[in-house]
Amino acid sequence: MKSRYKKLSLIAVALVGLGGAAALVLNAFQSNLVFFFSPTEVHQGKAPADRVFRIGGLVQEGSVQRQPDGLTTRFVVTDTARIIPAVYTGILPDLFAEGKGVVADGKLGSDGLFVANRVLAKHDENYMPPEAAHALEQAKEAGKTLKSY
């Protein structure tokens, strides 16, 4: 085999290897990507039904119900326009409370119940995730009344 063909073969193999590595990195990135949705966007069907996504808003006053097992908690996430019922099994953050900001990762069940696998609460009275603050602002501007999913 001539030197020129060896070089071309080596370049081709390197390009194929580089393309394969890039494809693996992009696939890993896509599978770990989590999107944020407000309760209104979930109600509009914008949230994926088969993937984990993040929902954010406020914990509705009077909605927190702790189950007898001590770990399962049912609550409602609202953006003041729509509500989404949620359930979480695990230890909640200390700052989790009614009327406070919350962001939860999980999946939406076919019954409209959001099953959270992680719950995050705001860390002080002035902080709210930018996405949640934006969603609440949009809901207030729209002037919609509170409606159930």
What distinguishing features does this structure have?
about 150 residues, alpha/beta, five-stranded mixed barrel, 8 strands, about 30% strand
Report on this model:
The chain is an alpha/beta fold. The chain contains 3 helices and 8 strands; from the N terminus they run H-E-H-E-E-E-E-E-E-H-E. It has a 5-stranded mixed beta barrel with strand order 2-4-5-7-6. The longest helix is centred in the N-terminal third of the chain and has 29 residues, at 3-31. It starts with a helix and ends with a strand. The model has no long low-confidence stretch (mean pLDDT 83).
Topology, please?
Blueprint: H1 3-31, E1 36-37, H2 39-43, E2 53-59, E3 65-66, E4 72-78, E5 82-89, E6 101-108, E7 114-121, H3 130-142, E8 147-148
Parallel strand pairs: 1-2, 5-7, 5-8
Antiparallel strand pairs: 2-4, 2-6, 3-4, 4-5, 6-7
Assess the beta-strand content as a share of residues. Answer: 25-35%
Give the end-to-end Cα distance, rounded to a whole number of Å: 69 Å
Q: Provide the low-confidence segments as ranges.
A: none
Total beta-strand segments: 8
Oligomer: single chain
Order of helices and strands: HEHEEEEEEHE
In short:
By secondary structure, the protein is an alpha/beta fold. The protein has helices spanning 3-31, 39-43, 130-142; strands at 36-37, 53-59, 65-66, 72-78, 82-89, 101-108, 114-121, 147-148.
